[in-house]
Amino acid sequence: MAEVAEDFSSRKDAETTQGKAGEASPKSQERRERILDAAEELFATSGFDGVTLRQIAKLAGVDVALTSYYFGPKLQLFDAVLKRRGEILNRARLDALRSAEAESAPNPPSIERVIEAFLRPLEIAQESEDRGWRNYCALIAYVNNSPVWGKKMIGKHFDKLVREFTAAMQRCFPEAPARDIFWCYHNLSGALSLTFADTGRIDILSENACQSHDFKSAYDRMIPFMAAGFREICGGH
Amino acid sequence: MAEVAEDFSSRKDAETTQGKAGEASPKSQERRERILDAAEELFATSGFDGVTLRQIAKLAGVDVALTSYYFGPKLQLFDAVLKRRGEILNRARLDALRSAEAESAPNPPSIERVIEAFLRPLEIAQESEDRGWRNYCALIAYVNNSPVWGKKMIGKHFDKLVREFTAAMQRCFPEAPARDIFWCYHNLSGALSLTFADTGRIDILSENACQSHDFKSAYDRMIPFMAAGFREICGGH
DNA sequence: TTGACACTTCAACAAGCGTTGAATCTAATC
DNA sequence: GATTAGATTCAACGCTTGTTGAAGTGTCAA
């Protein structure tokens, strides 16, 4: 079992040194990215403890020592992977939420629009030609459902965003108790995680009527499904 | 990364030898259970690769070698943990489904009743004084969301049951395309997994308005929530 | 040309891993 | 009491792990 450290240290003081010498050479920058890509892919399928730095280095086509040189201890590499795309994604989702709210102002948007803002940026990322986003989402699924990583890591990278969305959901149902809002969000979050995980299980169960990597089909149904659930629980009657 | 072996072998031919000499001594039987309990707990929180046999043995209060003696390789111990409670649970859920169907015959039961049959046996298990069931459910959450274990292990232990339930759901909505039924089941399964995982995240997000181990509250809301979702997607108009 | 410095490789480290052979213990059977 | 066989312990195996110090390479500035 890996312990979750509070702070990280690396061989060189990555952030600062990088900036001091102007910018990193394009060659080394590309290697950094390749390490992150490889780590992303392997962590996503096998988890933190199921992957060795040597496997990551091999997939990235670099020496093992380079992983430590660039990112410090294994845990810090893990954190760097989570951070890289997290910031981009969170901005896209927040922008989508802001648009939805602006559109309906001064009234709150429909719950469908809020859920859509939460999901669609993922779909765009996942359907892109770059496999990296799919790996990243699968990694999030792993972390989100893990008792060990869930609190520390997901909280660290996603709490701010999630609070924006739960607040928006609350505005959709101003009379609903916060408890209900959070349990409904919980249902959405869980279904989303399983979709991310892309386990291929729905393919087998449905005898290929559904494909687990068909994210568009998943979200097309998930949005009205979850909206109906929210209304049932939070709609109040 | 661990490979998922097709078949398992142990030092002694566990099943058969056990039976031959009449029954195992109560002392050794108790130790077997303690090993399974410890493995269940640790696997649930840290995953297959995040736990060592030495940690399991220590928690169980036995020698490391005993884990191999009783269960063979690590992977077979993992499988034994999944099997132990899986059979009990699946029977309870199937019984609940059969009761619901008998009650409404010759009509199909409401989707609420089907979902209830899927969830409530878990609640009973999880709310019992024995922490073992909670650990087991958390382990299922881990396995269900894992691309590596999801297909092999969950399929092996749960496919038969899940097919019973998806078939029952289809009978609730005979006009709905199978595709829709399976995506709806997928949403239910994902939300359930996250509940199992008991990550404590909802506690933090909701500032303790919700507790992640309050399974009754979770299911009380999950049943109408998911039923409304099913109706929205599969209800047809 | 020389120096400096980021980058990269190589080899090794101590620690821990899953697993197993051999020895010892325990308890029931003859 | 001797025999037998399962249960248990102990010590060790070969191997892999994350990490690092030291040496080497490349490149740009002085």
TrEMBL record, chains A, B:
Annotated DNA-binding residue span(s): 52-71
Keyword DNA-binding carried by entry: yes
Statement: the UniProt record of this protein carries the keyword Ligase: no
PROSITE patterns: HTH_TETR_2 (PS50977)
Region (Disordered): 1-31
InterPro entries the record matches: Homeodomain-like_sf (IPR009057), HTH-type_TetR-like_transc_reg (IPR050109), HTH_TetR (IPR001647), PsrA_TetR_C (IPR041586), Tet_transcr_reg_TetR-rel_C_sf (IPR036271)
Residue ranges annotated for the HTH tetR-type domain, each copy included: 29-89
Keyword terms, alphabetized: DNA-binding
Protein name: TetR/AcrR family transcriptional regulator
Source organism of the structure: Microbulbifer flavimaris
